[in-house]
Protein 1
Amino acid sequence: MIRKLLAVSLLTLASGQLLAAECKATVESNDMMQFTTKTVEIDKSCKTFTVELKHVGTLPKNVMGHNWVLTKAADMQGVATDGMGAGIDKDHLKDGDDRVIAHTKLIGGGESTSVSFDPSKLNPNEKYKFFCSFPGHVAMMQGDIVFK
C-alpha cells in the first residue's frame, strides 16, 4: 500500500512538472532585419515571463543592431519614432518612456540578451506588440503577444 501511494505521488509530481507553463521564449534576429517568430505566447499562469533575444547574424550593433521592445499595439509606432533620435547608447528608446512595458538592450551579431517582466500587469483584452526600435526596423521586425 505504501509503495502504491509513493508511486502515485511520484507520478503526480512528475506529471505536474511536465504540465507546468513555459514562462520564457527565445526570439532570434538576423542580418536580414528579421525576427524568427511573429508571435510570443504567454501562459496566463506565468508570474514572470522572460524573453531571450539572440542575434544570429554577424553585423555589429551600429550597423544591424536589434532589441526586443514590448508596448501596447497602439503605442508601437510612437515609441519607435521617438526612439529614433535617442541614439544607439540609449538602445533607440526615449528616456523614461512609460509606454515601454519591457525591453532588452540593443545587441549586435553573435550576442544575446534577455528581459523579464510580470505578465499579470498586462490586460489580456488589450493588444500588445513586440518590435525592434533600431531606426527603420519596426516595419519588418514586429510581432504579437498572445495569451493562452
Protein 2
Amino acid sequence: MAIVYRNRRTDAASVVQEVEQTGRRALAICADVSIDAEVLRAFEVVDRTFGRLAGLVNNAATNGGPARVADVSREQLEVTMATNLIGPFLCCREAVRRMSTALQGRVGRSSIYPVLQRV
C-alpha cells in the first residue's frame, strides 16, 4: 500500500507502521497531487515498488482555510480547485493507464474530499 502525503510526514509514517503491523507492505511517498510531475513520480515509485496497481483511493482535499466568501482570493480558489478537482483527476488518469478490468482492477473516485493524500 502506498500512502501519498504532502506535508504530514509523521502521520503518513504512522499509517505505514499500522499497515506493516498487519503483515502487509506499505510505503509513504511525499507528493502534491495537484502537480502533474509529482503525481507521475509517485505512480512511478509505486510501479517500481509494488508492480501492478490494484486500486486507488483519492482522499486529498483542502478548503483554502477559513474565510468569508467576500474575502476569498483567486489564489485560494486555484489551490482548492487544483487539489480537490485536478489532483484526483490526475491520479485517476494514472491509475486507469495502469489498470485493466481484465486484471480485476478498479478505480475509486470520491466526492469533493477526494487515501492518496489525506495525511
Protein 3
Amino acid sequence: MSGNVLFAMIARLKDGLPLSAATDHDPNRRVLESKKYAKILSRKAAHFPDRCSMFTGSHWLYVISSLGVCFITMCEESYPSVLAFCFLDELQREFISSYDNRKVDSVVRPYALIDFDRVIQKTKQRYNNTLTLSNRKKFSDMTLEVKLRPPYRISIEDLQSSSNANGHTPFHQVQTHQQSHHRNTAFHTVNIVDADPHEPKNFTRPFNTLDWMAKLLLVLSILCGTLNLSRIILVLTFGAKAYEPEEQVIVIKAMLTLLVSSLLCYRQAFTLWETVAKRSPREVAVCALIILCNLYLYHLYWRFLFTVAFHSLIAVAVTIKLRAGSFEWKLPHYTV
C-alpha cells in the first residue's frame, strides 16, 4: 500500500457545523488548498448521497454520512479508496459509540467535540501502517460493498453548483449530476474563495442560541450603555445653564466620557451577540477603556465607587466570556 491518510474531520449533516477534526498542521500549499475543499464539502454533504469521493487535483476526499453526521477524510492520490472508506467507517463507529444524537444536536459552537481528535489520530496512524491493519475481513467486506455500490463521484463543478443553490439539492438532481459526470470524466479546476470557507456568509445568530451566561452579560452590557446615555440625556434636558461656568468644562468632559463608555458597552454587547469567540487584543483594549472611563468619571465626581465597580466588573466579565468562547468559528490553537 502506498499513500497516507492526511486529514479527517467530522461535521453535523443538517447545517455543516464542524464537530471535530485532526489538529495536526501541514503548511504545504496543496494540502491547505485541499483542506479548504474538505471544509466546503462538510457544509454541502447533505446535498449528496451518503458515500462520496472527490478529487481536488492533488488529493482524494472521501465522505460517508449517517445518523445526521458526516465523516470526511483527505488522502494522498495513491491511497486505496477501500481503505479510506474502512477508515471512515471505523471513525463512524467510534464516534457513534462516544456521542449520542442528543449530544450532537446540542452542540452550538464549532469543534466542541475536539477531544475526539485523539481517536482520529490513533486510527489514522493504524491506517497509515499496513502492519497494524489486522482486520482483513472488514477490508474484504468493504471491497465488496464499494464494488456493488460505488461511491458517488463529486466534481468541483458539482460542489460549486451546490454552493450556489438555495437549500438542499433534491436527490433526483444529485442523480442527474452523477449521470452527467459519467459522461464527462474530465475535472475542471475553479478558484477557491480566499475568505474562510468555514464561516457562513450573511450569518445572523438567533438570541435563543446563546447560553444563559452570554444572555445575562448581553443584557447587562446593554443596560450599562443605556444608563450612560440616560445620564447624558438628563444633563441635556436641564441644559448647561444649571451649572456654574467653572463647572461647565467638567460637565462637557463627563458627557464625552459617558458617550465613549456607552458606545464601548454597546460594542461589547454586539460582539457578544455576534460571536462568542473574540480573542483579539481589541476586546481587552475595549474592556480597559471602559474601566478607564469609569475611573475618570469617579475622578470628576460624576460616579460613585460602587457604580464604577459595577460597570467595570460587567466589562471584565464580558471580556472573559468572549475569550472563553461559546460559539467559536475556530479554536485558535487547532490548525484544522
